[in-house]
Design a protein that fits this description.
This protein has helices spanning 19-30, 59-63, and strands at residues 7-12, 36-41. By secondary structure, the chain is α+β, with helices and mostly antiparallel strands. The longest helix has 12 residues, at 19-30. The chain starts with 6 loop residues before the first strand and ends with a helix. The model has no long low-confidence stretch (mean pLDDT 94).
C-alpha cells in the first residue's frame, strides 16, 4: 500500500522499566518499517494501578 503510513506511539520510563527493557524495545522498533515514531515519557496519574508500581524511573533517565 504505497499511500499508507504506520505510526507508533511509545511510552518510556514506565515504573520498573530497566535499561534492558528499554534497549530491547529500542532494537525491536529499529527493525520496523514505520512512517513515524512518537516517543514520550511516562507521567504518573492519580487513581491508577501504575502509580503503585516500583521502582520508579528517575526523571533524568526518562528524559535521556
Amino acid at each position: 500500500m504505497p499511500n499508507c503510513g504506520i505510526g507508533v506511539d511509545v511510552i518510556v520510563g514506565f515504573p520498573s522499566e530497566t535499561e534492558t527493557d528499554f534497549s530491547e524495545t529500542y532494537h525491536y522498533l529499529s527493525d520496523l518499517d514505520i512512517s513515524y515514531l512518537h516517543v514520550f515519557t511516562y507521567s504518573e496519574r492519580n487513581n491508577t494501578e501504575a502509580k503503585t508500581i516500583f521502582p520508579k524511573v528517575d526523571v533524568n533517565i526518562k528524559k535521556k
